[in-house]
Specification:
Helix content: 40-55%
Number of strands: 10
Shape: extended
Strand content: 5-15%
Largest sheet: 5 strands, parallel
CATH architecture of the largest domain: 3-Layer(aba) Sandwich
Distance between the termini: 64 Å
Number of helices: 26
Structural class: alpha/beta
CATH class of the largest domain: Alpha Beta
Number of domains: 4
CATH topology of the largest domain: Rossmann fold
Radius of gyration: 34 Å
């Protein structure tokens, strides 16, 4: 007897058997019980999630011969149910949309649809990959879908619903099949292995569930390949040997080398993975998956259901997660994701991957400018030389990247002294800039003399709004700040921040003053006109002249090599 693959042998036979699509199953069962079965359905979702299986179950429910009418629990034993399971029932016509996509094929369908079913209640057309039909074929279906014969039902299945004409979708009841969760796939795989009396390790089933990527059929196909090796018990090591999957232990070693800034170990681990038969893209994908798990552990905790690992793997991942913080992991993941597209099209993929690995390994961890300045000895005492600082820091952000070029000795003990500061926007932080040594008496001239310090102290957002304004009058304890007519937007935004600005003014000027904001009179520009956009050169000059950036460069003996704009 011919062997039947697991995906066919264990195909769901009733609505209750379908894994991971319970809401859709329940809706269809209720529609049958209440007599509200539509004449056309559109099942959408990725491959292997149960679209065609659900279509066959619905066909059996409508045509089961052992029931007096449509039933939510087909017998799966009558001639009609058995023939539908095999895909050769004369009243349930399954059509491959990819090979029967032309208008002539649809015209034949329309001509045959008028004839009543041979033995069942309904003539049912199941069209798989319906998005492959031509526009002419879709248009030919429109009239039949709008006013079909009472005995005809249509069930369309597709992985790309965006390619199905809107006029077709509007005539169907649409059900979106979700990806099956790894936990549900794991449970089903274990049940099948137990039923097949095959010995296995839990590590294997978890790894297969992750590889299935939400598709039950993919998971069963992978399991079939492993069973065909004839090796028992099935172990996770077989995935590397027979399926070409990365060894999780070697991947964790590579991630640990990156976290420890050990370039030599990182390159060695990368070489081991390549020598094991993995492509550069597979290694990048494996790193992304592993770092994603670390990121989730850091963000949601080790008990999160979003992390599918064995207890041993979770313990190891928890230890590695301590080396990184979320900002660094986010940066690593996005960098590797961009890299994988280059790896696919590069003739020198290995050097490109190794260069990226070294870049991640040798790069200094992100620090926001506040922390960087607070740890910079020069910011506290310019006469003191810079001191070594801890390599691992919390609270780093991808907006302010302080990283190193390779190969030069470095003062902080990380083998490099040339650094780069990538600034997306000029940072402004009040605590970073030296404050005025004395608080001047309130007066227009004295306020103007500390205006720059005031702008710094109010914070980055408010300072950007006040930068276009200037103090013009101080009388009876009220300071008038004037905006040009072109800055009505900035003035309005500052109206909501008056208390914040007044608080800073009192601190700087030593007087319980009040604030008045006004628009300059007599200008010809319309009041609602926004100021012109700054050029790239102007933005770069602002960044380079920012006191915080200057302090960072001085404290780290750094060189700005690039300024990225949003």
């Amino acid at each position: 007897m011919a062997y039947t693959v697991l995906a066919r042998k264990y195909r769901s036979q009733t609505f209750d058997d379908v894994v991971g699509q319970e809401p859709i199953s329940q809706t269809l069962k209720n529609a049958i019980k209440t007599g509200r079965v539509a004449h056309a359905y559109l099942f959408t979702g990725t491959r292997g999630v149960g679209k065609t299986t659900m279509a066959r179950i619905l066909a059996k429910a409508l045509n089961c011969l052992n029931a007096d009418g449509p039933t939510a629990t087909p017998c799966c034993k009558c001639d009609s149910c058995a023939a539908i399971n095999l895909g050769d029932d004369i009243d349930v016509i399954e059509i491959d949309g990819a090979s029967n996509r032309k208008i002539d094929d649809i015209r034949d369908l329309i001509e045959n649809a008028v004839y009543r079913p041979a033995r069942a209640r309904h003539k049912i057309y199941i069209i798989d990959e319906v998005h492959m039909l031509t526009n002419e074929a879709f248009n030919a279906l429109l009239k039949l879908l709008e006013e079909p014969p009472s005995h005809v039902k249509f069930i369309f299945a597709t992985t790309e619903p965006n390619k199905v004409l809107a006029t077709i979708q509007s005539r169907c009841q649409r059900f979106d099949f979700r990806n099956i969760s790894p936990a549900a796939i794991t449970k089903q795989l274990k049940a099948i292995l137990d039923q097949e009396k095959i010995k296995y390790e839990d590590d294997l089933v978890l790894a297969l569930a992750k590889l299935a990527n939400g598709s039950m059929r993919d998971g069963l196909s992978l399991l079939d390949r492993l069973i065909s090796t004839g090796i028992q018990p099935l172990t996770a090591n077989l995935l590397e040997e027979y399926l070409g999957c990365p060894n999780s232990e070697k991947v964790s070693q590579l991630v640990a080398a990156i976290g420890d800034s050990d370039a030599s170990a990182a390159i060695s681990s990368t070489g081991e993975l390549i020598n094991a038969g993995l492509s550069e893209v597979q290694i990048a994908d494996a790193l992304v998956d592993y770092m994603r798990d670390l990121m989730v552990i850091k963000a949601a905790g080790p008990k999160s259901d979003l992390v599918l690992l064995t207890e041993q793997q979770k313990k190891q991942a928890l230890q590695l997660a301590e080396i990184f913080d979320i900002a660094g992991l986010v940066y690593n993941i996005t960098t590797l994701e961009k890299l994988r597209w280059s790896l696919k099209n590069s003739d020198t993929a290995r050097p490109l991957l190794e260069a990226a690995i070294i870049r991640l390994t040798m790069s200094e961890h992100f620090l926001n400018v506040d922390q960087l300045l607070s740890q910079s000895p020069r910011s506290a005492d310019p006469s003191r030389p810079p001191q070594a600082r801890p390599r691992q820091q919390a609270g780093r952000t991808a907006a302010d990247e302080v990283s190193s070029d390779l190969g030069s000795p470095r003062r902080d003990g990380l083998k490099a002294d040339k650094k780069k500061v990538i600034a997306d926007h000029p940072p402004v932080a009040a605590q970073m800039v030296p404050q005025a040594q004395s608080t001047p008496a309130a007066g227009l001239d004295s306020i103007k003399s500390v205006w720059r310090d005031i702008l710094t102290a109010v914070g980055k957002g408010t300072a950007g709004l006040l930068a276009v304004a200037s103090p013009v009058q101080f009388e009876n304890g009220t300071l008038t700040i004037e905006f040009p007519a072109s800055a009505a937007f900035q003035k309005k935004a500052c109206d909501d921040r008056i208390e914040q600005i007044e608080s800073v003014l009192r601190d700087k000027c030593g007087s319980n003053l009040r604030l008045k904001l006004q628009i300059a009179q007599g200008e010809n520009q319309p009041a609602d006109q926004l100021p012109p956009q700054k050029t790239k050169s102007q933005k770069q000059n602002e960044i380079l002249s920012d006191p915080a950036v200057k302090t960072v460069i001085m404290g780290l003996d750094a060189t700005i090599t690039n300024i990225e704009d949003d």
